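Entry for the shared binder. Reason: the reviewer on the internal report wants the predicted structure included alongside the sequence.
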Amino acid sequence: MIVYTHADCLDHITPPGHPEQVERLRAVERGLAGLRVERRDCPLGLEADILRCHPVAYLNRIRAAVPAQGWAQVDGDTFLSPGSLTAALRGVGGICAAVDHVMTAGGRAFVAARPPGHHAERETAMGFCLFGTVAIGAMRALDIHGLTRVAVLDFDVHHGNGTRDLLWDEPRVRFVSSHQMPLYPGSGHASERGAQGQITNLPLRAGSGGAEMRAAWQPVLDDLRRWQPELVLISAGFDAHRDDPLAGLAWPTRDFAWITRAICDLADETCGGRVVSSLEGGYDLEALADSVAAHVTELSRAND
């Protein structure tokens, strides 16, 4: 079990009181402490990988917006500091390195990087996100490794609107997102199906917990078994936790273990167990540490 991370991800510094803070990555490290994992540094992401999902004009706009000091605001809740672009490039490099690793050596990987990615649309930074990290990893799997069936599964409490935007016209990827509704960013209705009907949204009501989540996910996972993905990517947000301050779902930590185990079972049955997971949300630090520990424990156990 490989964990990709990098100290540069601590240099994405947000304003005081911002929920997507440096301490999140330190909480992730507490969750990983004592687990049997191999750590590797995230390389810097390549421009060619970013351009599979974002136009060069957008990349150049982000580059130009990076401040020499302090902060630059690129969206209502999305900020850049002097180290933010390098941190985001580590996330891109980490997901691509993880995809390359599991496609050549098998196994599983977890990318512990920030800022997160699943809200970044083709030409819009938003929701704390700059680049569509997991969508970029999916496109690398398709274009570099020649895959034709990649599953992208997102259990963050917020809808992965950026991933939806980036993969809307991509028939080789099935994107599934469970999320609280109504909630930011306001998308994720069941009727949003993608250009080829390859997108599935699983809206969940505020206050719902594990029973509702399992009832929503189980038939989708069964359908994916019939589709036979060649790789499974996870947008692993832990803000559906009942202690998270930004949302209102009621998942205890054990629910993150359940959904991870269910996804790993799918991968074991269809694609030799190949799973790459990437950190998205999770803003209560203790809950984040506990949930990451449960998630990575299940990823590691499935890989034994």
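Summary line for the report: DSSP finds nine helices and ten strands in the chain.
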